[in-house]
Each structure stands twice: as C-alpha cells, then as structure tokens.
Amino acid sequence: MARIQLPEGDQLEVVRALTLRPGVAKAVGAYDRAAWASTLDWRLHELVRMRIAQMNGCTVCLSWRTPQALEAGVTEELLDHVDHAAAYDGFKAAEQVAIEYAERFCTDSKNIDDDLIARLQEHFDSGEIVELTFVIGKYLANGRFMQVLGLDQACVLQRDDDGTVHTV
What we know:
Elements: H1 13-18, H2 22-36, H3 42-56, H4 59-63, H5 67-71, H6 76-80, H7 93-108, H8 114-121, H9 126-148, E1 157-159, E2 165-167
C-alpha cells in the first residue's frame, strides 16, 4: 500500500505517483527506455537486475522476468543463486564480477576500489562498464523509489516490444 496519497485510477501505484510530477515521469521514462535499450547481454542484465531487486526487496522486480532474459537462457536456478554468485559455478566470470559490482554499488559504492574496476575491465570495455553502471543505477533508484514510498505492489509485469508495460 502506498505511503503517500495517490490519484485514483486503475494504473499501477508507481504510475499514479509519477503523474503527480509529469516532469519527473518524463525523466523516469527516458531513463527506463535508455536502460531497456542496453546493449549488455540480456542474461547479464537480468542477473544484475535480480540481485538489485533482492537487495531493494522490490516485490515487482522480484516477480517479473524480462522476456529477453528468458530468451537468453536465464533460469530460475540462476536467479536463485545471484545472492551468492561467487560461490556458484553456474555463472560466467564476467557475470560474477558484474553481480559483485552491483552489490557494492548498492551497498558501499565509495569503497569500490581499483581492483574491482580492474576485474571488470578483464571482461568489459569502458563503454560497457559505463552502461553496466547506468543500468545498475536505474534499477537501484527505481526499486528504492518504489520501496520507500510503498509502491512496490506484488504483481507481474510484461513489457511489449514497443516498451509498454502491462500487469498480468
């Protein structure tokens, strides 16, 4: 249940909250579209997204699966292990370091050291690291926005090819 007063309507609470500030809604939409257009591997994208959802406790993100990730071979078994990725041999080395980076970004970003960046650079070029950081920031910010304001309803989301989100 939302912790703030929302306009009436049938839309998701987060959508109704954003209608209170159309300029913010426009910025959130642009940020979402940019992250959605990520050129990162969708398996990696989903693993990072799920780890952030776990840390945020976002019920929407925990229950939703991106269709592209499912097509890329993401399984529930993989998602079940993102909270201890370093100890699970089902992840590629690049995925393990990306998940570690997401965790540290979300919990202790000021202590991301040169060693972690060097390990990222073993698998990703500078542009990919920028994109990974952007994607992590998007999921962290949106998840916490919804969680703090009580907008993280238990539902399943589906995104059409044109980017439209529906509850199912």
